[in-house]
């Protein structure tokens, strides 16, 4: 239960440092390759903390690595709930997976992460080649969409029933009430409609990987 206070501390320190630097959320966002609304979502706890974002924030705000150090404390509090979930794709009869991510996630790192970003995107491309996996990318020009409120997952069972899962710093929350699931399904359709088709998304990921090469 120590992870949440530490995460709140990171957001509080981030907000304090930004204000002390006399940077608006929009101005700070441009320096760390985020939109102003994305910075706001991070500070409010509506968007998960991101190691690359915090590393860049440390550099811009000249913190001496404070924010990334605090994040390491959060991670040491326990293994994240999503660890090893990808193994389900290697089962004899794997489920169908449709994933949506932002182009900004693929481009957000600085030069020191060049090798890591190439590996990460290559892994995404390998996954996208699986017949049961479809990856879609929301292009950079789409700066506002409902997915900015935070990551979520929807799963459908063999009998057609749906269940949702909302991620946060302490793990996640299951969603099974019909009205709440309906809201998530509507949000999923909204996010999915903003993303490129699978093949175009793959080509975009290849383009981004080349830019890191």
Report on this model:
By secondary structure, this protein is α+β, with helices and mostly antiparallel strands. The chain has 2 domains: 3-76, lambda repressor-like DNA-binding domains (434 Repressor (Amino-terminal Domain)), CATH 1.10.260; 85-212, no CATH class. It has 9 helices and 5 strands; from the N terminus they run H-H-H-H-H-E-H-H-E-E-E-E-H-H. It has helices at 3-20, 25-32, 36-43, 51-61, 66-76, 103-107, 114-128, 178-194, 198-212, and strands at residues 97-102, 133-138, 152-156, 162-168, 171-175. The strands form 2 sheets. It has a 3-stranded antiparallel sheet with strand order 3-4-5, covered by helices on one side. Strands 1-2 form a two-stranded parallel ribbon. Strand 4 and strand 5 form a beta hairpin. Helix 1 runs antiparallel to helix 5 (66-76), helix 2 packs across helix 3 (36-43) and helix 4 (51-61) packs antiparallel against helix 5. It is globular and about 55 Å long. The chain starts with a helix and ends with a helix.
**Mean of residue pLDDT?**
83
The span between the termini is: 41 Å
Write down the Rg. Answer: 18 Å
Strand order of the largest sheet: 3-4-5
Rough outline: globular
- Low-confidence parts: 1-5, 77-83
Assembly level? single chain
What's the helix-strand series?
HHHHHEHHEEEEHH
> Could you estimate the helical fraction of the residues in percent?
40-55%
> What structural class should be given to the helix and strand makeup?
alpha+beta
| Strand proportion | 5-15%
